[in-house]
Write the structure tokens for this entry.
Amino acid sequence: MRRFLRDNGLSITLFALFFVSVVGQVLTGWRALVADLGIHGLPPVGLLDYLTTGHFLSATFENWESEFLQMSVYVLLTVILIQKGSSESKKPDEANPEDETPEAKHGDPDAPWPVHRGGLLLRLYSHSLSLALLTLFVLSFWLHLAGSTRRSNEEALWHQQPTKTMSETLVDPEFWYESFQNWQSEFLSMGVLMVLGIYLRERGSPESKPVAAPHAKTGH
């Protein structure tokens, strides 16, 4: 067990922080919605019922959407673009191990099983990371759209106003405002991290170059 925790400490810690954050979001979001309902003279919702409200769904998937967009764009851009001096970039004018042809490892017993199978399966596996992230982005975008529609309709009922469909939400400036305000922060954080990583160091982190490495050193 100790070895398992050591070997998987980073993912365990991140998912634990995710769980704690979700619990905090649920509890505080629930109390905020109950207070809002009270202002409108409406009965409160239960904690479990809150998980199906537009208030929770819209806010949750609005953030997930931007995170998966950030990661998928980052993975794809690093395939084709170079940033001199960044540890996150491929080396310019040099062979990079991530560009190796997987067919050359067909006989390696430690290679993932799609490498042994080859063909279409290997082609899909060669792009499986970006495909998975883009799928998660599309799914989160759709759930954000559905959650925003539900939240808008819940608020419309409070004020005896007409509800709207997901198609109407899709062309609503408020929906795109929610998306763009998150997207811009994700792209900014990626750019800032990459540029700062050229000149600044964090000893012991694989996301940083060695402390004594020159600023122009590119790649791992």
In short: The chain has a mean pLDDT of 93. The radius of gyration is 23 Å. The chain has two domains: 1-51, 63-220.
